[in-house]
């Protein structure tokens, strides 16, 4: 079973649908849908769009190999790194102010 087929199968299970349910919604035979899930047949773009719409996904989301948990973890990591960067930038600004103050004190004498 290929990655796309596994994802479609997982989405189908999440909805509680049988292969027959999805096949009817896609207006194809059960064996044709089974071949999509198992990766036996290649899926054309039109059919991919139809499957994506059926599961309320964009085509990119359907074809994406990362799952929602991975995306959430990456998003959280990016947010954490952005926060750490903001703290470091504030520290740099404080140090720059100190350097300017010291420079001014040296040149007042």
UniProtKB/TrEMBL annotation:
Superkingdom classification of source: Bacteria
InterPro entries: Cro/C1-type_HTH (IPR001387), Lambda_DNA-bd_dom_sf (IPR010982)
UniProtKB keywords: Coiled coil, DNA-binding
Coiled-coil stretches: 68-98
SMART domains per record: HTH_XRE
Signal peptide positions (record): none
Domain HTH cro/C1-type residues, every copy: 8-62
Spans traversing the lipid bilayer: none
Name the UniProt record assigns to this protein: Helix-turn-helix transcriptional regulator
Protein source organism: Sphingobacterium litopenaei
């Amino acid at each position: 079973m290929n990655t796309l087929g596994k994802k479609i199968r997982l989405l189908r299970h999440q909805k509680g649908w049988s292969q027959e349910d999805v096949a009817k919604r896609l207006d194809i035979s059960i064996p044709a849908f089974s071949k999509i899930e198992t990766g036996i047949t290649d899926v054309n773009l039109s059919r991919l769009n139809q499957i994506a719409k059926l599961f309320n996904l964009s085509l990119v989301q359907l074809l994406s190999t990362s799952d929602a948990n991975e995306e959430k973890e990456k998003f959280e990591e990016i947010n954490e790194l952005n926060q750490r960067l903001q703290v470091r930038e504030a520290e740099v600004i404080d140090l720059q102010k100190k350097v300017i103050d010291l420079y001014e004190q040296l040149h007042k004498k």
